[in-house]
Amino acid sequence: MDAKRVKQIISSPAEIDVTYNGAAVWIDQLNEDGRTATVHLRGPMEERTVVEIHELRED
């Protein structure tokens, strides 16, 4: 995924399915470097993780 698409997903009112290493995640923000994003798993766990945006997949 690229930075432009990450921004579109974050600003979209629609629920867009995104995965990281096969796990469903919410994208919280695109980080200032433009190469990483802060995400958290969908569900009760809200631990946030910084990941490379090229590793995110849109389902």
From TrEMBL:
The keyword Zinc does not apply. Induction: Expressed only in the forespore compartment of sporulating cells. GO terms for biological process: asexual sporulation; sporulation resulting in formation of a cellular spore. Keywords: Sporulation. It is found in: Spore core. The keyword Membrane does not apply. GO terms for cellular component: endospore-forming forespore. Transmembrane segments: none annotated. InterPro entries: SASP_SspH. Belongs to the SspH family. This is Small, acid-soluble spore protein H. The gene is sspH.
